Amino acid sequence: QVQLVESGGGLVQSGGSLRLSCAASRKFLSYSVMGWYRQAPGKQRDWVAHITTDGKTTYHDSVKGRFTISSDNAKNSIDLQMNNLKPEDTAVYYCNLLDTGNFWGQGTQVTVSS
Predict the structure, then answer these.
(1) What is the pLDDT of residue 20?
(2) What is the DSSP secondary structure assignment for residue 15, as one 8-state letter?
(3) What per-residue confidence (pLDDT) applies to 1?
(4) d(CA 65, CA 48)
(5) How many angstroms separate the CA atoms of 59 and 67, rounded?
(6) What pLDDT shows up at residue 18?
């Protein structure tokens, strides 16, 4: 079992920035895929971005150019830098690790006010 612990959520005004971090309880594997998802009230959980251990990144169109995902394999951490935040980015953000299983963090709330 793997524990993922997110931090860094909060309340920010439209146009502001936040940085989310996720700490994993063990090292990433060579085939691990690390990602961030989000779930707005009354909606399904949606994929935001992911990164592989060799640094390949992919983003949902709605966050391209505004969000940056990164990982530190030595620290077993995954970050999400979010810039130019919009009210529609308001959601609970979840860290995800996919390798030997599909693991989720507990989520962190991000609220963007207009």
Answers:
(1) 98
(2) T
(3) 87
(4) 12
(5) 8
(6) 98
Q: What residue has token string 């308001």? A: 90
Distance CA 68, CA 27 (A): 21
The secondary structure element, H or E, covering residue 12 is strand 10-13
pLDDT at 24: 97
What is the DSSP secondary-structure string of 40-86? -TTS-EEEEEEEETT--EEE-GGGTTTEEEEEETTTTEEEEEE-S--
- Cα–Cα distances in angstroms (integers) from residue 57 to residues 6, 28, 53, 70, in the given order: 19, 16, 10, 8
CA distance 54 to 105: 22
CB 12 within 8 A of CB 25: no
